[in-house]
Design goal:
Elements: H1 8-48
Transmembrane segments: 16-39
Keywords: Membrane, Transmembrane, Transmembrane helix
């Protein structure tokens, strides 16, 4: 990604977009883990119940 932004002005924009993408990926990853954990607990609860 950083290769696409080699201009001095574009570098700040590139890093800003990269930070936003990383934050979005982190949020999606966190939500996915929470959903997966919840589904696993519900699945185990259904088997145990």
């Amino acid at each position: 990604m950083s290769i696409l932004f080699k201009n001095e002005k574009g570098q700040q924009i590139g890093t800003g977009i990269w930070m936003i993408i990383m934050i979005i990926i982190g949020i999606i990853f966190f939500v996915a883990i929470m959903v997966a954990a919840g589904l696993q607990l519900n699945f185990l609860g259904a088997i145990g119940g």
